[in-house]
Structures
1.
Amino acid sequence: MAPESTLDPYAEHIKTLQERLEAALAESTLEGLIIASGGEHRAFLDDRAYPFIVNPHFNHWVPVRHVPDSFILVRPSCVPVLYFHQPQDYWYMPASVPQGEWTSHWDVRVIQNVTEVRDQIDPSTLGFVGEDVALAEKWKCRQINPESVLHHLHFLRAYKTRYEAEALQQSARTAVRGHLRAKETFFEGGSEFAIQNAYLAATAHREQETPYTSIVAMNEHASVLHYQHYDHEVPIDSVSMLIDAGATNAGYAADITRTYARTSGSFADLVNAMDEHQQALINRIPDFSNYTDLHLAMQLRVSQLLVDSGLSTMSPESQVETGTSFHFMPHGLGHLVGLQTHDVGGLQLDIGGTLKQPPEQHPALRLTRNIEDDMVFTIEPGLYFIPMLLQQLQASEHSNAFNWPLINELIPYGGIRIEDNILMKGGQPQNLTRQAFAEVD
Ligand SMILES: [Mn+2]
């Protein structure tokens, strides 16, 4: 392994981004990029803005996530410039100018108006990266969201710098505090709504700060993969909870799922067996060079679990081959995680933007890349009792190979998903999530 750099993690991060920028611009005629943090969007006929979600290209360079109408100017071998928007306003509190150690790497210029940026740059030499295409056209930027440059940067985003890995580790710790509190609230008899609020309080996140909408699903709600409500009522017979909830640190996401059974029994046994399979699969990651193969290995394990638990008599190989396993596990094994929960570039084969699509029978798989050092991805096998898919299975020629009385007994539990975030280092998986549970618990 290469010796650890003596630079601090953020300095090293900026150096890496500068090198990537230089390489990405090498084939272009651009001298640099002007990257917008983004603008606020207002609801139709209303003066309320939707929650602001920062442009990840902006957040990649600076830990600034809540300041619309700011910009960064990045050029190879130049000190980067942050145009920090601080309007004169007594209706809303303007953001404070950042003071952190990281700002020593920046030329920070406070602006009151976006036009001040236009006056300080030469747009004819720059590529604009951001959502506001009209603004970039008005400024006459040389290129707007230049595709080949973005492909290059998106591909490399998969390789996390030390600064990013530490941010992801920290967000895992925060999320785990929430998960432990959510678990307690479930066993104390709380509703989905109460569990979500307990989670937010324990992570000190407001709802719009979580990297994705928390899934707090009791009973059959757990069979809806992205269940989006929070019931105020506790079900009369509350038997299970699936919680898929994350946290953010400097813009870097944790994406963690746990499933709980209130009492022992068939479902609790399935949860425990799934947990063992999930960890065994993570331990085997070094045996796989490509994530797609890991996904297929997971499909076999889930199918094996169906056999071991008496849910199916069909061999795991046949379940995968005939596609019946899809009816219990209809999503991918995982995805890249970073500035975005489903981080960019998961299907990208190279810096040129060539895509590697998932196998035809596994269209929901979001990661088909080779597994390499410094990548961070999730491992999230699941097993669900989704009435819609089970009806299709029951109507199929394979129906006889499945134990319908047991399936019907398990439908009220919804489903299971167990999700950890993995950092690859020296060819070995580091489980950021389990490390965080071990530290915080
Ligand atoms: Mn996930």
2.
Amino acid sequence: MVVSRRGFIRVVGGGVVGAALVGGGLQGCDRMPASAVAPWAGPGSETDPRRRALSWALLAPNPHNMQPWLVDLRREGEIMLHVDRTRLLPETDPFARQIVIGHGTFLELLALAAGAEGYRCAIEYFPEGQPAPDDVTERPLARIRLQHDGTAADPLFSQIPLRRSSKEPYHQTSLQSEHAQALRGMPRSGVAQLTIATDATRAALFRSITEQAMLIELETPRTLKESIDRLRIGADAIAAQPDGIELHGPFFWWLSRLGLMTPEKAMTPGTTAYQGGIDYALGWARATPAFGWLTTAANDRLSQIEAGRAYVRLNLKATELGVAMHPVSQVLQEYPEMATLQREFLSAAGAMPGQTVQMLFRLGYCEQVPPSPRRPLDALMMS
Ligand SMILES: Cc1cc2nc3c(=O)[nH]c(=O)nc-3n(C[C@H](O)[C@H](O)[C@H](O)COP(=O)(O)O)c2cc1C
């Protein structure tokens, strides 16, 4: 993400670096490398319809931008989708629930993209057997066959290149009721139920819970380290590894050059890098006028995939409406330090015993943010 001047100045407290930045002068440096965002241009001259649809699918939202997808195209007319088990998040997502949601988002974009070229996606889930509910194996999550039937394009397809997870403080404006209604009115396929909380009292409660959850994640060394290990700081690192949590732009260029922003510093309480990370995340949480969440009755792999499919459709619809959306998953995560706050959240969210809130997200308004990096399609191929 490009860190804003406002966020940065808050982080460094207006010291030497802040003064240099306020003076300007480095606006053009440390830009996002073009290669890292090239996939947002779509399939270009690809001719295989599977590769064309996959070129859009890899733009799906996914946890920590790990892009945990592997595809096998070795059988004619077929796509096998697997979890890339080298790209899991074992500390914050110990049961790979979020990783599997990130396969639902991928499958939904795949289906939209195939549909835009007249193909229906016949998706067979778990063609080699159901995985255990809390494990991911080498067996595929889905076998997809594209059937040319002149399917009409879904208008949401055109939003794919514009969709973002908008990781910014939102304007102090309520979510317009017609926007909340349009999101609530999205056709429900699958099992995920949507709730949107727009009233000021409830939004304040969810802001407070979100802030507390962020603090638990950031102050628990092993969960913080999971994010720090996935930081890509500066354009060179992003070009070499177009995934994970990217930080670039003049502000980070300065911090890096002054030795203030290193993975070690970001892990060390009392440093600018550590405190800046906390302040920045809390800044998002505090500037949130409304929250939404998706709930499922079960928590099996299929429910998680369906939640992912529903989530990205909402994200695309929000894009069309000009509404910003951003998942804040901390309180949903299944590790012991989060358990007490999670129970408080589930009660506030009205979840019934046994139900699982699969996605929690901020809703509001902000300027369009730039696209996040993606690996090229060939990086997803199994050989
Ligand atoms: C299951 C899931 C959980 C996510 N949780 C978070 C989160 O807690 N915090 C966050 O900033 N982004 C979260 N995201 C958004 C990803 O960080 C984002 O999709 C990724 O960085 C790629 O950016 P993009 O969506 O703008 O393309 C989540 C996405 C998914 C699918």
